[in-house]
C-alpha cells in the first residue's frame, strides 16, 4: 500500500513539475503543491523517523531498509529543489548513503555510486541556493562528474545566506561521509573536503536546530542514522556536528604524521566528547609506546555512557596490551578476561591471554587457552561487524596487518584465523613435548 502511494506521489510531482516548466508562475497545481508542501515534508519526516527506528533495532533487515530509503529519496527528489524541502531531503539522503556505505564493501563501483548520490544531492542544494544567480556561473558544477571540492565550496557559500543556513549541517554531514569513502584510496581529496567542512561548517553549527522542524508542523526529524556513540554524543536531542577533526586525524595518522594526528584528536575532544577519537588516541599512543597515556585515553572510552559491550571489549583488550608491554602480565590477563566477559567473540583477547601464560612459563594453562581458542573459532558463526564498528575505526581497517604467531592483537579488525591458531597450538605442543 505504501509503495502504491509513493508511486502515485512521484507521478503527481512529475506532472506538476512539467506544468511549471511549461507555464512558469501560472500553474494552479504547482501553487497548490507549494501550499501543501508542509504535509509532504511532514510525511517524509515521519517515514524517515520510522525507518531510523527500525534500523536501531538489532534484528533490522538492512536490505529492506535500503530499498525503503531509496524509494523515499526518489519520491522526495521528484520535487524541484527548494530550501524548505532540502532540510528534509539532505538528511534522508545522508541516511541512505550511510546505509549503503555500511552495507556494501567500500571501493570500486560502490564508492562511485555513493559519490554520485552525494554529488547529486549537493547539486540540488546548489540549484536551490543560487538565489537568482546566472546558471552559467555554476554550469560546470552541474555536470555528471563535477569537481566535488569546488561544488562543496559553492554550496556552503550560498547556503550560509539567511535562507539556506538550515541546510549547512546536513551538507557538512554528507561531505564528511564522502570524505570517509575517499579515506583509503584518495586521501588528498578526503583532506581537502574535510578542510572545507572544518572552515565553513562550524560557523553555523549554532543555527542547526532550524532543520529539526518539518515546515512548522513540529515533527522532529531524525536525520542521523549513525548511532549516538559514533556521532559523539550521549544526548540524542543535542545537535552534533560531523567528526571532522577525527577523520583528519585518521588521514594524518595514515600519512605518518603522529604529532598532527594527536593534535587533531585533542581538538575533537575539546570541541565535543567523541568516543572514537578517544579510542583512536589510545591506539596511536600504544603504537608510539606511550602506554600510560594510552591507558588514560582508553579509560575515557570506558567511562562513556554510549560505550556498548562490543566497544568495551576492544578497549579492555587494548588496555591489556598496554599492561603486557609494561611487563604486567597478571594485570594484562585480568583485563583480557574482562574483555571476554563483555564480548566472548572478541577472540583477540583470548589469544593475548595465551601469550601472557607463555611469558609466565605456564605451559599447561597456555595450551588449555589455545585449545579453547581453537574450539571457539571452530564453533563461531560468521558474524558481520555492526555498522557502528565500521565507522568507529576506519583508520584501523586500513592499518590492520596480519598477526604474527607471538604478537599481541590490538586492532579490533585483526583476529587470528583458525588455521593459524591450530598451527600455534601444534607448535607449542611440540615444543612442550605434549
TrEMBL record:
Q: For this UniProt entry, which residues form the secretion signal?
A: none
The protein's superkingdom reads Eukaryota
| A GO biological-process term | interstrand cross-link repair
Question: One GO CC term of this entry?
Answer: Fanconi anaemia nuclear complex
Q: What lineage is this protein's organism placed in?
A: Eukaryota, Metazoa, Chordata, Cephalochordata, Leptocardii
Q: Which organism is it from?
A: Branchiostoma floridae
Q: Name the Gene3D superfamilies on file.
A: Tetratricopeptide repeat domain
Q: What InterPro entries does the record point to?
A: FANCG, TPR-like_helical_dom_sf, TPR_rpt
- Name under which the protein is recorded: Uncharacterized protein LOC118422375
